[in-house]
Amino acid sequence: MSGFVSCLGLGKTYESGSGSVEALRSIDLECGAGAFVCLLGLSGCGKSTLLQIVAGLEAPTTGSVLIGGRELDGPSPLTSVVFQDHGLFPWMTVRKNVAFNMKAAGVSAAEREARAAGLLAMTGLDGFVDRYPHELSGGMRQRVGIARALTTRPKALLMDEPFGALDAQTRGHLQEELLRIWESQRTTVLFVTHSIDEAVFLADRIVVFSPRPGRISAVVDVDLPRPRDPEGAGFMALSKELRHKLVPDLHGAPLG
Ligand code: ADP
Ligand code: MG
Predict the structure, then answer these.
(1) Which residues form ligand 1's pocket by a CB distance below 6 Å?
(2) Which stretches of 16-108 are DSSP H helices?
(3) 160 alpha carbon to ligand 2 midpoint, in Å?
(4) Which of 9, 133, 152, 220 could bond 88 through an S-S bridge, CB–CB 3.0 to 4.6 Å?
(5) CATH no. for residue 215?
């Protein structure tokens, strides 16, 4: 894959009063235009740190990030972020939350209206536009977060465990919806998860991280046809292979 998002020799060390933590070391990563790439790893191996750096929200200690060939020096208009805790404004309705980023990006009022309506329909939110976040289920709130992220027509969506707090059934629905959205919008997706099954269901390419310091321990291309069947032989074989790569000597260790 030629890189739309490229990380070159990225390292990140957090300094604090109690010492320093090397969160990432020597990360080289190419994420092709339109690809769905999952970053898979145990808790603490630097996945969120990497996503924050690619989002331009955190500066690397070493190395650089290129987005569309340009070196990043802050949040890029070509990317949007979706977090686990949705980050919606509690005092704004669904419609206002979805439209918010466009206003900041200078999109005209008529165009904001049109884009919001299209994305609200696409994410199944059209019946909920006047509700407030606390009136929605966790799955609906994540839909609002995704709709909001897409309003600025990003070339890459950066998602940090967006479905991590949802029950299994809702998570499954949203995974399918995300794939449908990805296929229709042809955006690049960089998706952080600690769930092997989620990565195998979603990704074209899975980048496996190992901890202390966070680094890439394996890169696996997933050629299973879509839609994928979690009970199919190929799916299960790949899940098993990834379980070994993820925890080579720590079987039974908690994920998260
Ligand atoms: P993951 O998302 O894979 O769980 P993180 O990127 O959140 O991993 O964290 C990687 C390491 O960096 C952990 O040891 C974590 O405690 C540390 N870390 C993350 N953010 C900060 C921060 N703002 N200050 C200090 N240490 C941090
Ligand atoms: Mg994290």
Answers:
(1) 14, 16, 21, 23, 41, 43-49, 214
(2) 47-54, 94-104
(3) 7
(4) 133
(5) 3.40.50.300
